[in-house]
């Protein structure tokens, strides 16, 4: 291939790298502009980059998170369809599907698997320990047995935890404090958990500490299936709960619209762990920015693909947490959000 054709080849490659796709019209324009001959359009084998394979196992595909994740990968030189293949699998709140979906990803032969729930992270850790894993949105990876420590994870695992310096107990206490400030004089707060979620079982062990620190009675209600949410909210209401902390998880996220409706029906001011619930009509959320976690995951995937050992990459914690308040929802329900809460809010939806 001549030097001039090599120049054209590099330019053509840059067109592919600069965007997710090349239109036929744009390609034809390129050919006409350079009066290129067929042999000049060949891309030499030695010029091609190796194609990396990455698997993603998550509960749902949220466009804003995937866009941020793939954009960060592009910034680091990885372009889907050029030098990167990504296989996505989503279980949509049905955690019983995780083993089958994971088996599909293993067959794909990924160099690393990214996952965004504690349930799926635990499954990968057990079933595919030889495949590097990057997790995100796992509250307590040490307690779950994924890593030996945050600074030195060990094994084939690293990722992004959602706990703060106060640990899981401190994060739960912060949620309850926000509810206390939102509903002055509150004496009983319900906590909605999924008894089949290992992370929720760990977190329940922290409730006595939170109860003692805040001086409120906590009413634990459970739902492990979609048809159990109604009973859980009814139980909370009958036991005198005046607000509710909805713990995050695949089942809750997939049924978020139903849960928001139940909170409104039973007049229970609620707080969630993710902003997405509030955008969808929920009252409040306090937690890390999920999109930031996906950007971070892309950075760690880059390091692993370049040969770094996941176990040597420290588990990262969020540098900040975000309080989101839906003032439109509050007004519709007749809830007055105290000025002290609005001042603290990072985002107010009106």
Indicate the percent of residues in helices: 40-55%
The fourth-level CATH homologous superfamily of the largest domain is: Response regulator
Low-confidence stretches: 1-32, 36-46
CATH class of the largest domain: Alpha Beta
Number of helices: 15
Cα-atom Rg, whole angstroms?
A: 24 Å
State the total count of DSSP E strands.
Answer: 12
Note the overall shape: elongated
Note the run of SSEs as H and E: HHEHEHEHEEHEHHEHEHHEHEHEHHE
Strand order of the largest sheet: 7-6-8-9-10-11-12
Q: What fold name stands as the CATH topology of the largest domain?
A: Rossmann fold
For the biggest sheet, the summary is: 7 strands, mixed
Backbone structural class: alpha/beta
């Amino acid at each position: 291939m001549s030097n001039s054709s090599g120049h054209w080849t590099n330019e053509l490659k840059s067109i592919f790298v600069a965007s997710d796709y090349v239109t036929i019209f744009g390609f034809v324009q390129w050919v006409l502009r350079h009066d290129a001959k067929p042999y000049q359009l060949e891309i030499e084998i030695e010029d091609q980059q190796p194609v990396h394979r990455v698997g993603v196992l998550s509960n749902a595909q949220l466009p804003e998170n995937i866009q941020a994740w793939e954009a960060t990968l592009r910034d680091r030189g990885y372009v889907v369809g050029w030098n990167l293949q990504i296989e996505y699998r989503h279980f949509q709140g049905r955690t019983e599907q995780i083993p089958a979906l994971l088996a599909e990803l293993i067959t794909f032969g990924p160099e690393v698997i990214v996952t965004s729930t504690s349930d799926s992270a635990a499954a990968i850790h057990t079933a595919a320990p030889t495949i590097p894993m990057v997790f995100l949105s796992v509250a307590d990876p040490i307690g779950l047995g994924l890593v030996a420590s945050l600074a030195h994870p060990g094994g084939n695992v690293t990722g992004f935890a959602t706990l703060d310096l106060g640990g899981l107990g401190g994060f739960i206490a912060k949620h309850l404090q926000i509810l206390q400030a939102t509903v002055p004089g509150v004496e009983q707060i319900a906590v909605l958990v999924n008894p089949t979620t290992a992370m929720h079982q760990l977190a329940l062990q922290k409730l006595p500490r939170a109860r003692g620190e805040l001086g409120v009675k906590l009413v634990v209600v459970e739902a492990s299936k979609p048809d159990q949410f109604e009973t859980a909210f009814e139980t909370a209401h009958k036991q005198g709960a005046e607000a509710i902390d909805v713990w995050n998880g695949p089942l809750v996220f997939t049924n978020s619209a139903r849960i928001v409706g139940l909170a409104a029906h039973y007049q229970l001011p609620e707080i969630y762990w993710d902003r997405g619930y509030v955008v969808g009509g929920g009252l409040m959320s306090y937690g890390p920015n999920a999109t930031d976690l996906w950007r971070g995951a892309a950075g760690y995937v880059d390091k692993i693909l370049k040969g770094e050992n996941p176990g040597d990459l420290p588990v990262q914690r969020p540098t900040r947490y975000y309080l989101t308040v839906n003032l439109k929802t509050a007004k519709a329900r007749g809830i007055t959000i105290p000025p002290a809460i609005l001042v603290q809010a990072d985002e107010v939806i009106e």
